[in-house]
Amino acid sequence: MPQNQSHRFRNFATECLAGSVAIALITFVCFQLRLDPLIPACLYLISLILLSLRGSFVSSVVVSFIAVGCLDYYFIPPIFSITISNPSSILTLITFLVTLTVIARLVSGKQRLLQEKFERGEAYLSEAQRLSHTGKFRLESGYGRDPLVRGNLSHFPIRPEDGTDRWNLFSNGLIRRTGTS
Predict the structure, then answer these.
(1) Is residue 121 within a helix (H) or strand (E), and if so which, with residue range?
(2) How crowded is residue 132: how many other Cβ atoms within 10 Å of its Cβ?
(3) 155-181 per-position pLDDT tens digit
(4) What is the rounded distance in angstroms from the CA atom of residue 137 to the CA atom of residue 135?
């Protein structure tokens, strides 16, 4: 278990470091070009979105505080001073945090759906293996359309009486028997 915690901490530190480097690079380029504060704010938001898609919500929040600090220190007058009491800095921080929260919810929902789909696929595979008595199946289109194969379906354990869905999958070539082990 401690190794799992050290792995999670290492991932967290790596995500924070990568996000901080991106924020520093954006800050350096935008400050050298003396751009309006809106441009680095938008670039910060893009980098935070990419980080939250790849990383964890907590690392995105840490990097968003760094981004707001850089925005306030380098771009919001008075320059080279941090005055988070400025309404635009507070609004920027709230915008970053709300955006990251929405993205985190979407990503976790997508991961949950993918996990459910994976488990459902495993259940279908298990059922197909049980019915075939072989343990092996391969999905392939066009198999059932071959007239030579279609005429010789008597040795397969799937029959039209087993249910319309299974029989249609098999006879239309979506399930192909690959071995007898």
Answers:
(1) helix 87-132
(2) 19
(3) 555 555 555 555 555 555 555 555 444
(4) 7
Hey, what are 23's tokens?
């924020």
Amino acid of residue 52 = S
Left if phi > 0, otherwise alpha if psi is -120 to 50, otherwise beta: which for 173?
Answer: left
Q: Quick count: other Cβ atoms within 10 Å of Cβ 165?
A: 8
| Omega before 78 within 30 of 0, i.e. cis | yes
Residue with tokens 């009491």: 85
Residue of 100, 73, 105, 72 lying closest to 87 (CA atoms): 72
User: Hey, how many other C-beta atoms are within 10 angstroms of the C-beta on 104?
Assistant: 18
Which of 115, 103, 100, 95 is closest to 38 using CA atoms? 95
DSSP string, 23-82: HHHHHHHHHHTT--THHHHHHHHHHHHHHHHHS-HHHHHHHHHHHHHHHHHHTSSSTTS-
What is the crossing angle of helices 38-54 and 2-32, to 10°? 160
**Residues in contact with 153: Cβ distance below 8 Å, sequence separation at least 6, in sequence order:** 170, 171
User: How far does CA 70 lie from the centroid of its chain?
Assistant: 28
46-89, pLDDT tens digit by residue? 999 888 887 778 888 899 889 989 988 998 888 888 877 778 77
Model pTM above 0.85: no
Q: Where are the domains of the chain?
A: 2-115, 133-181
